[in-house]
Every structure is written in C-alpha cells, then in structure tokens.
C-alpha cells in the first residue's frame, strides 16, 4: 500500500460567538469575531503545506441551522484554496448543521464531497491516482439524531485502508457545551466501531480532543477554537500519516486564534491591593511569554489571607478586572482577563465551628441539613421557588459549577456575618 497523509478536523462552528463573554474593547471584540475563521484558515494552510491526500471534516462546520452567510463565504474560500492545491475534502454534517438545513445559496467546488444523510456512502481513497481504499461517512439528517449510525458502516474487503467519518457520541454522553449538556448524537460503543472493520474512525461532536481507541484508531480531534471557559488549552487538528503497512502516526497542531486559560492566585502571601495587581500582572506575563498568542483569562482567587474581605466584594473584583484589562487594550497579542472569581476563605476553621453550640454552629448545621454543596438538593430547592419558574430557558445558565460556587459563598458569607468583621483574624 502506498503511504499517505490526511488532516482530521471538525466542530468548526464557523461564526460562533463566545459564550457569556461581554464586550471588552474593539480590538479584542474583533479578534473574537474572527477567531473561528482564523482557526480554520490555519488548518487549511497546514494541509496545503503538508500536501495531504485528504482533508476530513467531522461535522458542525457551521454553528446553527441558519447558516451565517459570512461563514458560508469564508468556508467556500477555504475549500477553494484546497481545490487549487488538489486536495479533496470529505465531510459529514453534524447536529448543528444537519443535512435538512443546508441551503444551495453557495455552490461548493468539485473537490468537496458531502456524505449523504440517508445511508452510509463510500468515496474512493485516491493516492497518486490509485484507489487504495475507501472513505465512508453518513451525515446527520435532522439534528440530535438518536440512531446508532456506526452499525451501518462496513468496510469493503478489497480496501487496503478504510476511513470512517462520523459525527456522534462514542460511549457515555460527554458534556459538550456549557449551555446544552449531555447531548448525545448517534450514540454507539467502541465494539460497534470495531465490528465495521475500519482502519481509522474520524469522529466529531465531542469538543475535547481524545484518542478513544487505537486498534482501530477512534479519534476525536475536538474543536479547533475554544468557545467558552470550559474549553481551555490548545485546540486544533490532527495530521495523520499512514505508512505502507497501515500504521498510523498522529500529530496534533494547535490552530486556535485565541486560547481560553485559567490562572489561580493564592492570596495567603498578599498584603494589599498593590500585591494583588502585581500578581495578576505576573500571571499575565508568564502566559504572554509561554504562549505568544492572544488569551482570554479566567482568574481564580484562592486561599486565606488579609485580602479575603476585599476579594469577596464583587465591586472590588470588578475594579481589579477593569484595571488589568486596561493594560492590554490595543495589544495584538493580548492576555485579557474576562472574569475574576473569588474562592478565598476567611481565617475560620469551619469544621471546628460546626462543633460549637452557638449561632454559627446552628447556622452551619442548618446549612449541612439543607445544602452542604449537594447540587441535587440545591436544584430541588430552586425548583420550588416561584422566581426560578419565571426564569424559563435562562435556567440553563445555572450550571452545576455556578450553583456549587453560590452554595460555598452562602456558607462562608453566613458565618462571616454572624461572627462579625472583628472576629476574623
């Protein structure tokens, strides 16, 4: 078999907004608006540079059924560049851009092969004008499909190498978004995939990069551009090199235009606001020197110390945030904090206070009995409140993380109020 190489990417979500991110400034807002496009362009650049034999897109090229026209134009320009380089594109449609939603507003070039949503389709895998195997795929037809697509895949016995392209969930449903969680699409198990006799499974839908299995390879490239704070770290695509004996070597390359990152600051050694601002500046400089690319930064304050009461004040944290943002406005390679989260604690031994028969002990006992950081209990309490029922779809924004943080804050604030400011050392 002739050796060859291909690119695997997916979940491009072209034109997608970043979740929950407020306007920070013109230059940052513009960089955010272009981030998904820039990331895809970087993958195309890599494919052309490496002269790959195939370019795989594992679904969700767009972010919604209403395909943003700018996103369509930018996608067209990118695949036309691949056409000029004689690189064929093989793509399935995902739950965010299912087949039923595609419009014929823009005609794709002949190098783009979109798999049918009716049945598994096979395109020949061509290397140096010779067919060495097949590329198989099936698109999502109507969004969040529950059909096990994998059971419909079956490689030809004559294939020297077979590749399956799919948008779906392998194994247990994985948290895929901060807004809509546990959205399982085309659910299947690894055993379903191995029975299909494919040599490589390129799969999309889960935004976390992961190699699920190696014989055969079952690979999620993840999304090439993080869209919210849970999608931290490097995001990109895979270059897969297949040797003449069918062995695969995977190379990951970061392509995201902007990274989401988190920095933790322990306040135990900080004495005043000047120390806090210097520590924030230090964390930013470390990221700037190490990553050399724009970063949207979540800052988490932890520990116990003299600054706890300031850290607990929302207006103070907003002031620190604004000052830190001002330092990076106008920079092309910005390290831009977008939120400062307080997880600090007062200098109080809560476990010892729980043992005392006083107002604080009674408060903590009542807290333990009703909440004690149990998200299930918190949701049950909220469900009974009339205010919660009026939230409607906005209730989806109350993630487990948000509720846990609120519960912890209630525990600490209640104790602090009852003990009085002067009792805290």
TrEMBL record:
Domain Calcineurin-like phosphoesterase as annotated: residue spans: 4-208
Keywords linked to the UniProt accession: Exonuclease, Hydrolase, Nuclease
Matches recorded under Pfam families: Metallophos
Keyword Cell division: no
Keyword flag Hydrolase: yes
Superkingdom classification of source: Bacteria
Gene Ontology MF annotations: exonuclease activity
Gene3D superfamilies named among the record's database cross-references: 3.60.21.10
Protein name: Exonuclease SbcCD subunit D
């Amino acid at each position: 078999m002739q050796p060859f190489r291909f690119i695997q990417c997916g979940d491009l979500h072209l034109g997608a907004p970043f979740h929950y991110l407020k306007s920070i400034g013109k230059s940052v807002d513009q960089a955010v608006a272009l981030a998904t496009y820039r990331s895809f362009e970087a993958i195309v650049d890599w494919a052309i540079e490496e002269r790959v034999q195939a370019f795989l897109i594992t679904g969700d090229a767009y972010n919604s059924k209403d395909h943003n026209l700018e996103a369509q134009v930018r996608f067209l320009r990118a695949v036309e560049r691949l056409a000029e380089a004689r690189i064929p594109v093989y793509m399935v449609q995902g739950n965010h851009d299912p087949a039923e939603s595609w419009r014929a507003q823009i005609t794709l070039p002949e190098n783009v092969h979109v798999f049918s949503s009716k049945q598994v389709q096979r395109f020949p895998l061509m290397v140096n004008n010779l067919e060495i195997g097949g590329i198989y795929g099936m698109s999502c037809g109507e969004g969040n499909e529950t059909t096990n697509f994998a059971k419909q895949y079956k490689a030809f016995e004559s294939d020297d190498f077979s590749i399956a392209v799919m948008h779906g969930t392998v194994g247990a449903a994985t948290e895929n978004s901060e807004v809509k969680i546990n959205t399982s699409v085309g659910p299947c198990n690894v055993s379903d995939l191995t029975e299909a006799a494919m040599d490589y499974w390129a799969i999309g839908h889960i935004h976390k990069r992961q190699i699920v299995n190696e014989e055969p390879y079952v690979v999620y490239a993840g999304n090439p551009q993080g869209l919210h704070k849970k999608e931290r770290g490097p995001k990109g695509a895979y270059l897969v090199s297949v040797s003449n004996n069918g062995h695969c070597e995977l190379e990951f390359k970061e392509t995201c235009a902007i990274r989401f990152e988190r920095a933790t600051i322990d306040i135990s050694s900080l004495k005043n606001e000047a120390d806090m601002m210097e520590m924030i500046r230090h964390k930013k400089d470390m990221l700037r020197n190490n990553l050399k690319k724009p970063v949207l930064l979540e800052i988490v304050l932890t520990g116990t110390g003299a600054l706890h009461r300031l850290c607990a004040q929302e207006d103070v944290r907003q002031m620190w945030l604004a000052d830190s943002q001002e330092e990076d406005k106008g920079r092309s390679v910005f390290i831009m904090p977008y939120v400062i989260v307080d997880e600090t604690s007062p200098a109080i031994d809560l476990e010892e206070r729980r043992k005392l028969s006083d107002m604080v002990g009674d408060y903590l006992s009542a807290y333990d009995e009703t909440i004690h950081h149990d998200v299930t209990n918190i949701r049950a309490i909220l469900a009974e409140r009339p205010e919660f029922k009026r939230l409607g779809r906005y209730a989806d924004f109350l993630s487990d993380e948000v509720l846990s943080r609120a519960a912890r804050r209630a525990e600490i604030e209640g104790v602090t109020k009852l003990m009085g400011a002067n009792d805290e050392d």
